[in-house]
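As agreed, record minuted below.
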Amino acid sequence: MDAETDEESQDENGDGDHDNNSTRTRQNGRNYSIEHRLAPSIEEAQKALVDLRQLLKPRRADGTGYTDPKLNRVLLERLERMREFLWLYTDVCSDGTPHATNPVGGHWSQAADRAARNAGKTHGDYLSRYLRNWSKAYIKNREALPLRMKSQTLSRIDDESLAADLKLHLQSVGKFNLTQDLVDYLSLPENQMRHGFKETISLKTAQRWMKKMGYRWKMEPKGQYADGHEREDVVYYRQNVFLPAWNRYLPRMRRWKNDDPTIEDIVAGQGRPAVVWFHDESTFYANDRRKLRWVISLRVQCHNQRGKGCH
């Protein structure tokens, strides 16, 4: 009876230890289980090495040579490091012991450290650890390749409400907006409260946000000029107002002899002479000399109208 009680107590303790071990296996996002820490066998590593070599140098269908594996540069480099590591680990004597030319053979961690140093890493603990993780995952599953995962970091500008509010503000400023406009806008207490800011952003952040919203700092695009001389209202004014008035003043205008343009041809009886003053008119606007600005990349360019002057 006492023996059975002791066995049950041991079983309960064993189960309790197993539960505690299961809890400890995923602390800080790392696996500390015994199964994960054990090195794979030489035979398993040799089979994975054969498959890895075929992945890096796939044979042609006709067997005459090799073809491009079509792998990206980062993945290709990682697989090459894994191949070297597995070769160092599996290069052992027939009895499984390391030989003189490869003392790290059969030693999982030492082989990974040697492969990391061969890659040029003086202190290769980081690469050594990843080589062990990548290779062990590949040994268990040939589809588990060491792909580089994209960063999941999100920016505040990814908030559609904030982005729409900032775009609306930039439109109210006009086409010659600046990154400082974003900084000033988010420095207002009511805007900070609405979007959950404690302080405004920096100019560098504003520049990144402008690019995220589709703006580019470049030369102002020029569209095709639209000639308004043949517009219906312009033609009507020229034919019915300007030319009749010109003809009325024409007899009184000053004119010069054709044979000698220095002598005025005076026509008597036409009343007081009318002097036509011809001049060039130029119209200038603010920011006319400004060539660089933030341009929205998806904006549809309109035809540029000619200025009021230059006629």
